[in-house]
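ok trying again, last paste got cut off:
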Amino acid sequence: MRALRILLVIAVVLGGIFVIVDRVAVHFAEGEAADRVRASEGLASTPDVDIQGFPFLTQVLGGSLDEVRVGISDYEAGGEGGKTIRIAGLRADLRGVGFSGDFGSAVADSATGTATIAYDELLRNAKAETTKVAPGITAEVVALSDGGNGKIKVALETTVLGTKLPEPVSVLSSVTVVDGNTVRVRADALPVLGGVRIAESRVRRITDFEQKIDGLPGGISLEKVQAASDGVDVTVTGKDVRLAG
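nice, full thing came through this time. structure:
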């Protein structure tokens, strides 16, 4: 019995040591991976990297991590005409991450995630300029906001014969993803501007617009988008997603 108790104590001590070593190793690996992602994507700040699963060391021996979560607070993606568009709160869950020994390269079998594009950021990059829609009538988009039920409320400022109308005209618009890299905003119904019904093609030159988003990290692409309180919430997805290297 005494020998059994000694063996149990040794097993507990060794198990505790293994857990400590495993946690130290994963903490070091997360730091290395975060530095690699920052360098690879040219980020202004170091991202959050959280390696899931226990034990970590057995995953390392197998050459693949079950799950890695990456968080980037602000990401500058490519927009239209050489502009950039800021993507906030990008969170990606990557599965089946194969890596080199020094984390110089890492590729995930698949990835899913979420992000947000603020309304003022979307408007800044969209076609927001004064446009003549009828003789003596001009209009422009001046604000985007949450219209409820997944819709965007688009506010249009209208000027009639040189006089700006006191209140913007609002229209509810649907927002969708096109070709995996473009956010499209399209009015559900046409507004009446300046008390005049204007040809649909002319009105849609103002109400409808698209925002292309290129260069998302690791080659992930847009899957779905929906209006929310602070901006449009985006779902991203990808296969063979490269974290580094």
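cool. Residues 114 and 200 are 34 Å apart (CA to CA). The two ends are 55 Å apart (CA to CA).
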